[in-house]
């Protein structure tokens, strides 16, 4: 959900693409689109400032992008792009 209009919503049902992230213990994240691995890259979790406020947040960095970890628990991961007009990603386990 997001974009310049702020109301673009893409779901697996609307796009026909199911996206999945798989994090490994050796610091890699594998990105899948509808069951096919599209890339496997190193990731880093760190503390840092965001565009949203001047506080430190947990950040996920991979594939040249920095995401704000907005929420994480046993069943879901919510990431936000760390730039204006970015997207909000909700991954379910």
Write the layout of secondary structure elements.
Blueprint: H1 12-15, E1 19-23, E2 28-33, E3 36-48, E4 57-62, E5 65-72, E6 76-81, E7 88-92
Antiparallel strand pairs: 1-2, 2-3, 3-4, 4-5, 5-6, 6-7
3D structure, described in words:
The protein is 4% helix and 53% strand. The protein has 1 helix and 7 strands. It starts with 11 loop residues before the first helix and ends with a strand. A 7-stranded antiparallel beta sheet has the order 1-2-3-4-5-6-7, with no helix packed on it. It is mainly beta. The radius of gyration is 14 Å and the shape is globular. The protein has one domain. This is Lipocalin-like domain-containing protein.
Please give a quick description of this structure.
This is Lipocalin-like domain-containing protein. The protein is mostly beta strands and 93 residues long.
End-to-end separation:
18 Å
**Main beta sheet strand tally, sense and closure:** 7 strands, antiparallel
| Low-confidence sequence ranges | none
Strand content: over 45%
Helix content percent band: under 10%
Task: Assign the structural class, choosing from mainly alpha, mainly beta, alpha/beta, alpha+beta, or little secondary structure.
Answer: mainly beta
Which sequence of SSEs, written as H and E, runs from N to C? Answer: HEEEEEEE
**Mean pLDDT over the full residue set:** 89
Count of structural domains: 1
Would you count the extended β strands for me?
7
Based on CA atoms alone, the radius of gyration comes out at 14 Å
Overall shape = globular
In the sheet with the most strands, the strands line up as 1-2-3-4-5-6-7
The total count of helices amounts to: 1
